[in-house]
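Supplementary Methods. Inverse-folding protocol.

Structures were first reduced to a discrete structure-token string of length 95. This string, shown here, constituted the complete conditioning input.
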């Protein structure tokens, strides 16, 4: 599936509410990335997180100025982990 983001709102609790081109809306929590530190550490500043988030051209993902970005498809998978991705999904075989 090639998900496209049409709208995104960052929140001070390090979540982002995202609307995709098919109308689906979900919230993704990025705190697990922040906990990794390194490049992700900048996202820990709540004001900066909210103020600097941008939707990438064509809705292909979200980005912050430190060249940190998240793909629309990856965010969609985080928001809806049980949704089929549209990529190769092997058949479930009953045992």
């Amino acid at each position: 599936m090639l998900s496209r983001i049409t709208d995104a709102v960052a929140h001070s609790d390090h979540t982002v509410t995202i609307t995709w081109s098919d109308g689906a809306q979900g919230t993704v929590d990025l705190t697990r990335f922040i906990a990794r530190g390194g490049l992700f550490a900048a996202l820990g500043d709540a004001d900066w997180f909210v103020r600097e988030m941008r939707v990438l051209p064509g809705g292909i993902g979200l980005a912050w100025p430190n060249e940190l970005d998240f793909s629309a498809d990856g965010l969609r998978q985080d928001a809806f982990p049980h949704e089929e991705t549209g990529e190769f999904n092997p058949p479930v075989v009953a045992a």
